[in-house]
Amino acid sequence: MLDIINIHKTFNPGTINEKVALAGVTLHLEEGDFCTVIGGNGAGKSTTLNAVAGVWPVDSGAILIDGENVTGVSEYQRAKWLGRVFQDPMTGTAATMEIQENMALAARRGLRRGLRWGITAKEREEFREQLKILELGLEDRMTTKVGLLSGGQRQALTLLMATLKRPRLLLLDEHTAALDPKTAQKVLRITDTIINEHKLTALMVTHNMKDAISHGNRLIMMHEGKIIFNVSGEAKRRLTVKDLMQQFEAVSGEEFASDKAILA
């Protein structure tokens, strides 16, 4: 479902602020893979997701989604294949619009717009059933403005909206980092439910080593713009935080310095 082939990206090349962000990243995800991405600050995690999403062009290499080469395709054109949830709960929804209106926008993504009644009775009932999955009581508050929801409620709604159209690939960029620990775990449980129920292919960046181990069937660790560790299946299920730290130090020759990743 996803092929990242030897992609490179350098920001501000030839200047004092030159930064090599990606240095030959290669990754293959099968359909239905749920891959977590761990690494310290500046390792290239979010940069990789942004490359897949087309936020900016890569310097070299190729990106294929479901066998289709999207390397030169613009961000808005790639959007039809992707679902995205960002770190900031305020991103991804329209605060001044109702819950049901936000869901209607997500349901109409990629479709031609016309002059007709905004939300039909049938759609309203479908949205109510979909909101029940979240177990947050939002199905009884569909006329509530999204801006009045808590961060966790809004992030859960964003996740539901991002997957309404069954994207070929779901990108989760530290989507629980801005939430308190209890709410973050709730959103992660919802994430697992939605991905498993719809058999989605997903790539989830996280700073939390425990979350990276306990979610998904694949795990990659990045360092200095490269993938230095790639594990899946039973080997991943047996991993511990100590194992990950030792693996990082063995491959990179450095100590893992991110307290956030270790202690989160």
Helix content: 25-40%
Looking at the structure, what is the overall shape? Answer: globular
Share of residues in strands: 15-25%
Number of helices: 10
Low-pLDDT stretches: none
CATH superfamily of the domain at 2-81 and 167-263: P-loop containing nucleotide triphosphate hydrolases
| Secondary-structure element order, N to C | EEEHEEHEHHHEHEHEEHHH
**What is the C-level CATH assignment of the domain at 2-81 and 167-263?**
Alpha Beta
Main beta sheet: strand number and arrangement? 6 strands, mixed
* Average pLDDT taken over every residue: 87
Instruction: Label the structural class.
Output: alpha/beta
Q: Please provide the count of β strands.
A: 10
Output the CATH topology of the domain at 2-81 and 167-263: Rossmann fold
Computed over alpha carbons, the radius of gyration is 19 Å
Span between termini: 31 Å
* CATH second-level architecture of the domain at 2-81 and 167-263: 3-Layer(aba) Sandwich
Strand order of the largest sheet: 6-7-8-3-9-10
